[in-house]
Amino acid sequence: MKVAYIVSRFPKLTETFILYEMVALHRQGVEIELFPLFRARTGRIKGEGGSVWRKAVELLQPGVPPKMHPEAVAITEQAHFTPMVSVSVVVANVHWLLRRPLAYVKTLGILIVSNWGSMNLLVGGLLLFPKMAYIADRIGRLGATHVHAHFANHPAAAAFVVGRLTGLPYSFTAHGADFQVDQHMLCRKVREAQFVVTVADANRRAITDHCHHTHDKIHVISSGVDTTHFSPPVGLERGNLASDMFTIVAIGTFYEVKGQTYLIDACRQLSDEGLAYRCLLVGEGPHEATLRAQVEAAGITERIEFTGPKDHGEVASLLQEADVLVLPSIPTQSGRREGLPVVLQEAMASGLPVVASGISGIPELVEHERNGILVSPADPQQLASALGRLAADVDLRKRLGAEARRTVLERFDLHANARQLAALFSGTES
């Protein structure tokens, strides 16, 4: 079984769920051919989302990211990166025009009509269509038996094009903001896909509410985490990261949807209450300058550290040494919402108690007072109260952490979930 994977960009430090899903599938005998639409650029993240025009410019100056997961190095060397324009791209498009002119023109027309009214998806589809046709040609020549895309926007559109030109079955995984913000062409992609995967029941309901009569086609499979890599510390007490102070960790790109601003407000309250703590904000992103200014204005620079991005191994070490992971996510005005964040699964697999907003798919993982604490979004007072409880009650931290680990072992193990996905690829899933 050979599956062609289409992703937005690779290697991307924050998308470990795609990287390790491919690794887990490979271990189960699935051959993967990776087709990123873009090569991950160098430098720091400068804007949320970004435009297709900027992405096109990035592709003209490809580079290797400053930090990469070790497993991604070899995969990057074998990935099929494609320029926006090249002789090979032109030849592939001429090939489809001569071999399947009606399918080529009709598919392009569907992309235009279905995405009309969405500047991002329409312009992106037009810019990427020649590359999509080239990818279709390459996938056909490589002998792939199935095409799978991660994200319901441009990658799923690419899978749609490949399916129409080659006749190969395709599927895609929908995560959250990739279909919540802009739903142009979503139903067409779902209808023509062999199946659709999403990471939470909340996402399945959102898709079926928008695209009627598709419930049986949508499967809920979390990406999952490696529960041997993310595991509780052995023979060590938590809280020894740099001192014996209560240690809070928040991991995520500095986007509005991640809600770090409310954690900073909660930390200010904890300082006012006299709690000794340190908070590590792990990541980078467009809101970093604003968050740093907020920390300085609150007078808690000695309590909050911006660590920069961390790779897979560094994240695992941080989670073993912390006392709690916080994910204060919020729904944004633009419609962005969390799906089922992998970082929560990683923390819980590490036996770490978590405090998270009770929105989207998060309550499907975190059960309030059983394996974590749920709070209302955009409520720093609730956040501060939950963190204060955990700081004062070691037994509570241990109980929640143990239940958190048990939850992930039972429902969110990477290899078990990869087996479900492999079964769907082969058509053996009931």
Quickly list its features.
430 residues; alpha/beta; Rossmann fold; 2 domains; six-stranded parallel sheet; 17 helices; 12 strands; 47% helix; elongated
List the helices and strands and how they pair.
Layout: E1 2-10, H1 16-27, E2 31-39, H2 52-60, H3 70-78, H4 87-99, H5 101-114, H6 119-142, E3 146-150, H7 154-166, E4 170-174, H8 177-180, H9 186-192, E5 195-198, H10 201-210, E6 218-220, E7 246-251, H11 260-272, E8 277-282, H12 288-298, E9 304-308, H13 312-321, E10 324-327, H14 342-349, E11 354-357, E12 373-375, H15 380-392, H16 394-411, H17 414-426
Parallel strand pairs: 1-2, 1-3, 3-4, 4-5, 5-6, 7-8, 7-10, 8-9, 10-11, 11-12
Structural write-up:
The chain is an alpha/beta fold. It folds into 2 domains: 2-224 and 413-426, Glycogen Phosphorylase B (Rossmann fold, 3-Layer(aba) Sandwich); 246-411, 3-Layer(aba) Sandwich (Rossmann fold). It has helices spanning 16-27, 52-60, 70-78, 87-99, 101-114, 119-142, 154-166, 177-180, 186-192, 201-210, 260-272, 288-298, 312-321, 342-349, 380-392, 394-411, 414-426; strands spanning 2-10, 31-39, 146-150, 170-174, 195-198, 218-220, 246-251, 277-282, 304-308, 324-327, 354-357, 373-375. Strands 2-1-3-4-5-6 form a 6-stranded parallel beta sheet, with helices on both faces. The protein has a 6-stranded parallel beta sheet with strand order 9-8-7-10-11-12, with helices on both faces. β10 (324-327), α14 (342-349) and β11 (354-357) form a beta-alpha-beta unit. α5 (101-114) packs antiparallel against α7 and α11 packs parallel to α12. The longest helix has 24 residues, at 119-142. The protein is elongated and about 75 Å long. The model is unreliable at 42-64 (pLDDT under 50).
